[in-house]
What we know:
Blueprint: H1 2-14, H2 24-39, H3 45-55, E1 60-62, E2 77-79, H4 80-86, H5 91-102, E3 108-112, H6 118-124, E4 130-135, H7 138-148, E5 154-158, H8 161-170, E6 177-180, H9 186-196, E7 205-209, H10 215-225, E8 232-235, E9 239-243, E10 251-254
Parallel strand pairs: 3-4, 3-6, 4-5, 6-7, 8-10
Antiparallel strand pairs: 1-2, 7-9, 8-9
Helix pairs in contact: 5-6, 8-9, 9-10
Amino acid sequence: MFFQSWEYFIYFLKKEDEHSLHSPFYYNCYQELKRYLKTNKAGISSLEKRREFFLEQNTKIVSKDLGAGSRWESGSGRTVSTIMKRVTTPLKFSLVYQFLCKQTPAYAVLDLGTSLGINTAYLSNSVKGKLYSFEGDPAQMELAKKHLDSHFNVQLVSGNLDETLREVVQGLPRIDFVLMDANHRYAPTIAYFDLISPKLHGSSIVVLADIHWSGEMKRAWNHLKRSPRVTCSMDFFDCGVLFFRPDHVRSHLVMAI
């Protein structure tokens, strides 16, 4: 936990507000995001009820973690409630992801890391085409599937992301929005981005979750934000946002949220 605490201290010292944004596009985007969070702070009622349902479930499931594991506990057996509390994104960032997805064409959207499907469901409400959601843990996928079956624009993809992502990406002409919240290690994160990158365009947005989760994730974030195609990055501590707009001056921002 010391690493995250130290990282937050550095973030707190560096974070800025809208007055640091010189580009009208990013200024407006940031202001609209803050308004969106304020207006929708209660979330979507049906999805928050699902979140509460999972929080009450003390059933233990045997997880198959293909990534860096949990920073909270070791072993494969965890309760559904524990996963909901410690692994799944809080409401605020579910809304951040939903808002950012809305800023893209949102016809081809990738969700790398379904978990219990709360973020997936929030993204589904922004998607105009198809949302492909990937999960390597069969137990979590089964729980997510029970409530995501009603989201007809969601295609769930089970299995090791190292094997499943390529086939989906190859079948898409363009990719509009990506939420990367899967394997929290440096090499796989970079490999996933490199696979997706050729399909990105000027209006695409990529979000990398947990950029200060570990030294490896911080390293991955620093690598990706320096990618030649990235023209702006925003560090919100819990996640980092990458923009690819070719007509904008390159900038890297640490923003309060």
